[in-house]
Design a protein that fits this description.
By secondary structure, the protein is α+β, with helices and mostly antiparallel strands. The chain has 4 domains: 129 residues, Beta-Lactamase (2-Layer Sandwich); 104 residues, Beta-Lactamase (2-Layer Sandwich), CATH 3.30.450; 101 residues, Beta-Lactamase, CATH 3.30.450; 62 residues. It has 13 helices and 16 strands. The strands form 3 sheets. It has a 6-stranded antiparallel sheet with strand order 2-1-6-5-4-3. Strand 5 and strand 6 form a beta hairpin. Helix 12 packs antiparallel against helix 13. It is elongated, with a radius of gyration of 52 Å. The N and C termini lie far apart (164 Å). The mean pLDDT is 82.
């Protein structure tokens, strides 16, 4: 057996190929001399041992895993034909790592199966690393394009002459260009039809001072407003060959901001108090009318609970019913007696509405309140005046009726006295009746 192995080794050495003969248990039986530097071991340390026994760290290039103990025989084809694969090998100690192209073929077959195998190795570290680098570059490029194409913002990479080098999908879609049609064209010519850059274009400023810049540009044809930003891209030698240009459509945002500002201006100038609180009743916003009504400044009110206005007039049942209504996601309306910062009481007609998020959860409460203290006082005075007027009318009616009775009494009394003699006994009584009527 040893003589046969020596003869086989002599024959393989003549070809100058790194070849290993493996037994059925993956142990090395024959190894050519050119394998020693490739595997990083002298020949006497290789023969009789498995590759995995030598402490080699073996990486499967396809699955990136540690191979089986009988590596590489698990890669052998059942029919004995050549099996080709690539694996990485690192021989300890040391950081040296090489990629090997392997061809595994059955060398001898016995009654129960293969007895030995030829394993031919070729060092392809340089080629494989180049392939890995190219693969990484391709993956990075693909990831960049996939990520940037998913953005709704218009993203372009331009040179210092404002010629487009790369553009994402949003840039092509904005004006209906196919992918690649923008390359080499100038930004301002493509998007605006202008021979010169836009005024105050951030890109021109970055091209001059190599610093990031921000700006806003309105597109007259689209009637859209874009927030534009530009950033420099530096090479390893510190030069700036390229620039990144990002444009975001902020038209809707500006419209929303304008509507928000109008709404806030209306709330700020409203004569009614507006209070916004959390779902726990902590004040988040008050308008100037609240400050005027309560005496609390905005800074004093925000962060505190609404019970700072509690007067003690309302009982627990009142507040219980109020919160039952609000927690049922319904609007509560009613009249509140509250206490100002200076301790005086005042009355408010209040409408409190719960604010819900998309899931239906209450996140805020908005209270619109109107000070009705003076109105209530005027109402009380009006009711008092109406009461006094009614009493006066009643008294006047009674007096009128009574005067009518007195007139009849006096009239008939005068007639009766005129018919009586001066010395008549009843004349004195009639004089008393007439004297009482004159009072």
């Amino acid at each position: 057996m040893a003589e046969r192995d020596n003869s086989l080794q002599t024959m393989l050495e003549q070809f100058g190929i790194s070849t290993v003969v493996l037994a059925a248990d993956a142990r090395i039986t024959v190894c050519t001399e050119c394998c020693a530097p490739l595997l990083g071991r002298p020949m006497d340390q290789l023969v009789g041992r498995r590759l995995t026994d030598l402490g080699f760290q073996v990486v499967d290039s396809d699955e990136h895993r540690e191979p089986a103990e009988n590596f590489p025989l698990e890669r052998a084809n059942p029919d004995g034909s050549a099996s080709r694969f690539i694996f990485g090998l690192q021989a300890p100690p040391g950081p040296n790592f090489c990629w090997l192209s392997a061809t595994l073929k059955t060398a001898e077959r016995g009654a129960s199966g293969p007895v030995s195998f030829f394993l031919t190795l070729t060092d392809i570290t340089g080629l494989f690393q180049e392939r890995l680098v190219n693969r990484q570059i391709f993956q990075a490029k693909n990831e960049w394009e996939t990520t940037v194409d998913a953005l709704q913002d218009i993203v372009t990479i331009q040179d210092r002459e404002m010629r487009i080098v790369r553009a994402n999908k949003a840039a092509h879609d904005l004006f209906g260009y196919h992918l690649g049609e923008l390359k080499g064209r100038k930004c301002h010519e493509v998007f605006f039809g202008r021979p010169a850059p836009c005024k105050k274009c951030p890109l021109t400023e970055t091209a001059v001072d190599c610093r990031p810049h921000l700006g806003t540009i309105h597109h007259p044809i689209l009637d859209r407003t874009f927030s534009v930003s530009s950033f420099p891209i530096f090479s390893q030698n510190g030069k700036m060959p390229l620039l990144v240009h990002v444009a975001r459509d902020v038209t809707q945002y500006l419209q929303n901001e304008s509507e928000k500002n109008r709404l806030m201006a209306a709330i700020e100038q409203a004569s009614e108090s507006v209070v916004i609180s959390t779902d726990k009743g902590v004040i988040q916003y008050v308008n100037p009318a609240f400050e005027n009504s309560t005496g609390y400044t905005r800074a004093e009110a925000i962060g505190r609970k609404l019970n700072i206005l509690k007067s003690g007039v309302h009982d627990r049942q009142f507040y219980k019913e109020m919160w039952q209504t609000l927690l049922a996601k319904q609007v509560w309306r009613g009249r509140l007696t509250n206490r100002r910062k200076n301790g005086t009481l005042f009355k408010e007609d209040a409408t409190i509405s719960p604010v819900q998020d998309r899931a239906g959860k209450i996140i805020n409460y908005v209270a619109l309140k109107r000070d009705v203290t003076r109105e209530e006082l005027l109402e009380q005075q009006l009711h008092q005046a109406m009461k006094m007027e009614a009493l006066g009318t009643l008294a006047g009616g009674i007096a009128h009726d009574f005067n009518n009775i007195l007139a009849a009494m006096i009239g008939y009394g005068e007639i009766a006295r005129g018919r009586l003699a001066a010395d008549h006994p009843a004349r004195k009584d009639i004089d008393q009746v007439l004297a009482g009527g004159d009072r």
